[in-house]
Amino acid sequence: MSERNVVITGSTRGIGKGIAAELLKRGANVMISGRSTAAVDAALAELRPHATRSRVAGLACDVTSGAGLQALWDAAAQAFGKVDIWVNNAGISHPRQRAGEMKSKDVSAVQETNLLGAMLATQIALRGMRQQPEGGTIWNMEGYGSSGMMTPGMSLYGASKFALTYFNKAMIEETRNSSVKICYLSPGIVLTDLLKRDVGSNTPEDLRRTLRAYNILGDRVETVTPFLADGLLAEHRSGDRVAWLTGGKAARRFFMSIFKKRQVMSEADFAAG
Question: How far apart are CA 120 and CA 123, in angstroms?
């Protein structure tokens, strides 16, 4: 496999940083980004030991800013020569509250980061990849709500992901027969700061009920990201989905939970979050 150059938004922690580490181990060059220079610098210090046969760089970037995203593209293109893969991973959640109880600023922040940010980044990456003879692949990250599943208190986050799925489908059609591919990346339920903020806002009873399901279906970052990294580097057609928690896997886990309990997360994980 030829050397790949990858940009990942929202990659100073959690799934994004985990994917970056796994890609570096596989010889890909990676440009990370986060909201602050301090966060980027700290992540780079952790990631550099993995870059034994690849390069890693980073830039602070506000994904709600077209100019900031263009600067991120330009920095990656200058550092690596081209961008083969762009991953829209940046996202935020909110405490589990019904929409009518949330502050307006929180509503705006979730939609601007999760939806507008991914739209702007896709636009920037698409323009850049069209200028490259080899084109490239843009990946948008799925999450709770992408499939249309609904839970009280998750309406705003879920709406951002459901809308992003529509946008992704539209982009697949708009780029048909071009050198740019649009794909889906679906990590499943992963213990990250994002999940801690969501689940940690539950009542103690709700938390225990949620943990029962998450210990069947959930995983930690280090379990999921090697699979996601391999998926990103594989050859794909536009519209392909790399999904860790498939329907079949979920069904098998529920069946096996009758005989053996998985302990992936505990109340202590969310108390610390």
Answer: 5
What share of the chain has pLDDT > 90, as a percent? 63
**Rounded to a whole number, what is the largest CA-CA distance in the chain?**
55
| Domains identified in the chain, total number | 1
Query: Does residue 170 form part of some domain?
Result: yes
Domain with 234, as residue range(s), is 5-191+220-246
Residue-wise pLDDT for 38-79, tens only, equals 999 999 999 999 999 999 999 999 999 999 999 999 999 999
Answer whether 0.85 is exceeded by the pTM. Answer: yes
Q: Does the residue 45 lie in any domain?
A: yes
Closest CA to 61 of 113, 23, 18: 113
What CATH number did the domain enclosing 240 receive?
3.40.50.720
Residue 198: pLDDT band (50, 70, 90) is low
129 occurs within a structural domain: yes
Residue 53 covered by a domain: yes
- For 246, phi and psi rounded to 5 degrees? -80, 170
Catalytic sites, residue numbers? 157
Closest CA to 50 of 22, 89, 73: 22
pLDDT tens digits for 238-252? 999 999 888 898 898
**Is the CB of residue 102 less than 8 Å from the CB of residue 50?**
no
How many Å separate Cα 241 from the centre of its chain?
13
